[in-house]
Amino acid sequence: QMSDEELEQIIINAKEQLGDELFIPGHHYQKDEVIQFADAKGDSLELAQKSARTTAKHIVFCGVHFMAETADILTNKDQHVYLPDMRAGCSMADMADINQTEVAWERLSQLVGETIIPITYVNSTAAIKSFVGKNGGATITSSNAKDMMKWALTQKERILFLPDQHLGRNTAYDLGIPLEQMAVWDPIMEKLHYDGDLDDLKVILWKGHCSVHENFTVPNIKEVRAKHPNMNIIVHPECTREVVALSDDAGSTRHIIETIESAPSGSEWAIGTEMNLVKRLIKENPDKHIISLNPHMCPCLTMNRIDLPHLAWCLDSLAHGESVNPIVVEDDISHFATEALNRMLNK
Ligand code: 13P
Ligand code: SF4
């Protein structure tokens, strides 16, 4: 087994050898040992934009599978995307598969006719993005969710929002849509949960969630408020409506970082998002008192599968002319997925 120093040296050598041919995007949830080698750090939107712009031949994505797929969709045929560990998926993206989506679409269309537009969080498979693109919809990220939902409601009367019910509910609520005008589609039971009049229905939320952000709870907020009366609470909008409502602020990872970095010295913060980012913010802002909203730091296990050994193996193989773990989205899926992504990126 190699030491961290040896692995780091392999990465440094491979990066030097591949030069401009290599681009490494890294999501803010990646471990420090990985993110130190990223050419660009960012939230989901920034990484999609930067992947669309790069001219590098090899893109080694330090993030999760749907992000690497998005990069493949947005780059040219002669550019190749790799994921250092194929097990780095996203449990939320896995909560909506294409067959379930087709069933839901058919059933909902029977109920409300052609008055509905599909919108998907980028945290979804390429096949879902393609379905959405084919049906006139768009992708969104937590950075532009409000604008994109507003746009969607200029296109049709109601939205099917995949796959994160919490981001969907929080965003719709921010736009002034009452909770009574939101329904939940359960893809396992193939059932719509809604008590109101169908004419009033505005947003149908897919019953998916992030298993990391569901760990930030109302009792966590009550404990922080009781123990630290001056503490500000900032969370990611993948947290539940109740948690977002009781927090002081909510936003994408980029928004969280910018808020903490520009906060006054001595200010106090409880953060409700993935552990690696919270730890990094604690380390990089020693003049502020920062804690995790849930005292048991919450890791995204799949993000964490990208580690020093996998990154070193992936880069070393590329430097030796071999490709490992390529992510290739089929042309027919890529075509309509591009439309869904471009409706977002061109805004
Ligand atoms: P953002 O970085 O866009 O806020 O996304 C968070 C996330 O959960 C990515 O999987
Ligand atoms: Fe998926 Fe949640 Fe992990 Fe993001 S933090 S990759 S949404 S499981």
From TrEMBL:
Q: Supply the alphabetized keyword list.
A: 4Fe-4S, Cytoplasm, Iron, Iron-sulfur, Metal-binding, Pyridine nucleotide biosynthesis, Transferase
GO terms in the biological process aspect are: 'de novo' NAD+ biosynthetic process from L-aspartate
Please name the SUPFAM superfamilies in this protein's record: NadA-like (SSF142754)
Q: Which Pfam families match?
A: NadA (PF02445)
Amino-acid positions noted as binding [4Fe-4S] cluster in the UniProt annotation, renumbered to this chain: 90, 210, 300
Report the main location listed first in the record: cytoplasm
Keyword Transferase on entry: yes
Task: Relay the cofactor remark from the entry.
Answer: Binds 1 [4Fe-4S] cluster per subunit.
Query: What's a single GO MF annotation on this record?
Result: quinolinate synthetase A activity
InterPro entries, alphabetically?
Answer: NadA (IPR003473), NadA_sf (IPR036094), Quinolinate_synth_A_type3 (IPR023515)
Q: What is its EC number?
A: 2.5.1.72
Per the record, the pathway is: Cofactor biosynthesis; NAD(+) biosynthesis; quinolinate from iminoaspartate: step 1/1
Q: Where along the chain is iminosuccinate bound?
A: 27, 44, 121-123, 142, 236-238, 253
- Which reaction(s) does the protein catalyse, per the Swiss-Prot or TrEMBL entry? iminosuccinate + dihydroxyacetone phosphate = quinolinate + phosphate + 2 H2O + H(+)
Q: What class of enzyme is it?
A: transferase
Subcellular localization is given as: Cytoplasm
The cofactor named in the record is: [4Fe-4S] cluster
Instruction: Pull one GO CC term from this UniProt entry.
Output: cytosol
* Listed PANTHER family: QUINOLINATE SYNTHASE, CHLOROPLASTIC, QUINOLINATE SYNTHETASE A
Record's function text = Catalyzes the condensation of iminoaspartate with dihydroxyacetone phosphate to form quinolinate.
Family membership: Belongs to the quinolinate synthase family. Type 3 subfamily.
Q: What is this protein called?
A: Quinolinate synthase
Q: Source taxonomy lineage?
A: Bacteria, Bacillati, Bacillota, Bacilli, Bacillales
